[in-house]
Amino acid sequence: MRMKRDVARYKAASLTLFLAILTGTGWAVSPAMGESNAMSFTVNLREWFVLEVQTSEANLESSGAAGANVTTTMSPDGIPARIKALTVVANSQAVELRVQVFGDLVSSSGETLPLSEVSWAGAGDGFQSGRFTSSGSTVLARWVGPGYHEGTVQYFSPKTNATGEKYVQRIVYSLMST
Asked: Which of 4, 120, 133, 145 sees the fewest Cβ atoms within 10 Å?
């Protein structure tokens, strides 16, 4: 009879270890010895973020415990950037996808396009649409709790449609809890 209990405890501990390794979490096993011979365990999840940005020029990915950042270029040509975000956070934790643009956009001929003339359209659960301000920092998407989120962002400007010039600027996407 004692051997069956030991085997059951070994299987439960092995399953706990397997799940902890599979999910990349910290773990602790604390057997609750009592008349019921029950075993309990606690899994401590750490925050984790994965961000992937796919543009016509590049496919970039970043991950980390404090957040994820991807640096690329942006052009208001209407070609969508596909965004994939995976968040491991508490159920009530808010998560934001922010974007930082570093100044006005510039064409190959040296012409500038004020950042305030650039708007964006987001598509997908939690994605927003709007217009940049001169600060260049804004929230593109917002979610609550853990999960996988996918959507697109398209950047537009009336000036690029009229002149045919291609304007670009460096941009950083940041995924983090708030």
From this structure: 4
